């Protein structure tokens, strides 16, 4: 399910499926994109930041057209203890690999991978990013 911002409308709460993972997409070419994500973060329950949130940065192949400071994106990952993934949507191989990675993360967050929790996966992602 996709939404452009949070909070979600309450009139359909009874129809909404369980939310296992939230992927915040940031278009590196749009300051509005980052501002929208920052505004939406206030509407996410703190328990989701324990391995069930990630930031997906798109447009990374166009460094010359960046409107968003990379430090601001890295800071979001640090402040919210969530992984930051980078993707160039125009390149099929990268797009497919990123989709597979997100799907695997979702399987973990939804509890479909025995022996791996969203919290332990989030910790593993952060420790591998630091290396």
Automatic annotation (TrEMBL):
The keyword Nucleus applies. It holds the Pfam family CENP-M. The keyword Aminoacyl-tRNA synthetase does not apply. It is found in: Chromosome, Centromere; Nucleus. This is Centromere protein M. It comes from Alca torda (Razorbill). GO terms for cellular component: chromosome, centromeric region; nucleus. PANTHER family: CENTROMERE PROTEIN M. Keywords: Centromere, Chromosome, Nucleus. It comes from the Eukaryota. Transmembrane segments: none annotated.
């Amino acid at each position: 399910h996709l939404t452009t911002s949070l909070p979600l409308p309450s009139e359909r709460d009874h129809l909404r499926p369980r939310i296992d993972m939230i992927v915040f997409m940031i278009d590196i070419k749009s300051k509005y994109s980052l501002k929208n994500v920052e505004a939406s973060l206030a509407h996410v329950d703190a328990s989701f930041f324990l391995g069930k949130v990630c930031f997906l940065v798109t447009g990374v192949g166009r460094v010359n057209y960046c409107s968003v400071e990379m430090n601001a994106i890295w800071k979001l990952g640090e402040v919210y203890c969530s992984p930051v993934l980078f993707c160039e949507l125009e390149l099929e191989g990268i797009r497919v690999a990123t989709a597979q990675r997100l799907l695997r993360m979702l399987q973990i967050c939804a509890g479909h991978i025995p022996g791996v929790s969203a919290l332990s996966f989030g910790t593993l992602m952060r420790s591998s990013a630091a290396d």
